[in-house]
Amino acid sequence: MSQKINGVKGMNDLLPGELGGDMAPVEVWQHVERTTRELFARFGYGEIRTPMVEDTALFVRSVGEETDIVGKEMYTFEDKGGRSLSLRPEGTAPAVRAFIEHSVANQEPLTRWYYIGPMFRYERMKTGRYRQFFQIGAEAIGSREAAQDVELMDMVVQLLEALGLKEVSLNLNSLGDDACRPAYHQKLVEYLTAHREELCGDCQRRLETNPMRVLDCKNEKCQAVVQAAPNILQFLCEPCKAHFDEVKRKLDALGVKYVVNPKIVRGLDYYTRTTFEFIAAHPALGTASTVGGGGRYDKLLKGLGGPDLPAVGFGLGLDRLTLLLKESGQKFSTPPDVFIAVADEGSGDAAFALASKLRREGLKVEFDTRGGSLKSQMKRADKTKARYTLVLGQAERESGKGQLKRMADGQQFPVALSEIVQTVRSAPPA
Ligand SMILES: [Zn+2]
Ligand SMILES: [Zn+2]
């Protein structure tokens, strides 16, 4: 016996139906992806698909060398040509890289893209958090107006609504810009330094590298310290304050509910002004309750060697969204319309051909290619939860007629074999 090989820890198989254990069935994933594509198209966002592997320098320069993502969590390797490559840990930097590389700014003044795909981080695992995780993200490049920030938030709100996820709240903040953030930064460092001994080990390190990250530390001791920390919103310069006020005014005008939360700093170095998070109040996710978030990154394009254009974007965790939907008990798989069963040995080819023909005509048809007794086929029909079964034998072949049996109540419907599609489509549900 050969030894079996398992999948990589933290990277999941997504399987159809109930086969996938803790993960949501693939039908839930398909539903979320389909809903996303339809909705985002209505907002004028086009889909991009960038490679899963990028030059390591892209993430070092955009996400930031001092972040946990780049410092500790990236899957980085050397390829056979000696280049340092990394599995993408997030989707914004690749989108911006593609935008710059294809000189998109020369072709359109405002670009709006979305993506759906896997990202990779070597993280400690907990519920809804994996090393290969899937994100839905969108980026809007070219507008510095508050309307662009609000359009993105509205798009997420409408997506969550369309998915039936109501217990999610929008938390909103502004991180200021180069004109006002340094003064805040200094005050924050002074305050945190005075409370250094009360902070967790990670935050003592963050105090040196990325002090704003202390604000969203989940450690209780740190949260107690942060309670009385200086508030970024009191340090905003006039233009940043006006931008933030306009974001709030436009959200109000659309009827989008939000709470202002000055602790929303996000993990990445490149954010400026607006940041936001969508936080789910749902026990299924345990402590991992942020389903997504984003913000404005007006300096990133220039920092990556591109044009000096403002941008704003978000990312949503597809793993968490699908877990929430799975918990909600909605069903996303549809049963077969008809199960074709073979009554006698001579009818196998005709039944097989009938199944093929009905599929061509648009029905979802199950057929047991293993053959076997009629009894075993009917057991299989039950198992597939087919709406109807049709038994095909010599009598049916000769008369061109059969009986559609509705599985829910056993009622039989006489049918011409040439009119099965019409009968199935017009029959009232049991
Ligand atoms: Zn901490
Ligand atoms: Zn400012």
Q: Which helices and strands appear, and what pairs or packs with what?
A:
Layout (H helix, E strand, L loop, with lengths): L25 H17 L3 E2 L5 E3 H7 L5 H6 L2 E3 L5 E4 L4 H10 L9 E10 L11 E10 L4 H17 L5 E7 L6 H14 L6 H9 L10 H8 L10 H17 L4 E2 L11 E9 L9 E7 L3 H4 L7 E7 H10 L10 E5 L5 H13 L4 E3 L6 H11 L3 E5 L1 H6 L1 E6 L5 E5 L3 H7 L4
Parallel strand pairs: 1-5, 7-8, 12-13, 12-14
Antiparallel strand pairs: 2-4, 3-4, 5-6, 6-11, 7-9, 9-10, 10-11, 14-15, 15-16
Helix pairs in contact: 1-5, 5-9
One zinc ion binds next to α7.
Q: Can you describe this structure?
A:
- Helices cover 36% and strands 20% of the residues.
- With 430 residues, it is an alpha+beta fold.
- The strands form three sheets. An eight-stranded mixed beta sheet has the order 1-5-6-11-10-9-7-8. A five-stranded mixed beta sheet has the order 13-12-14-15-16, sandwiched between helices.
- The two termini are 50 Å apart.
- The structure holds zinc ion (2 copies).
- One zinc ion is lined by residues 176-177, 179-180, 236-237, 239-240.
- Pfam families: HGTP_anticodon, tRNA-synt_His.
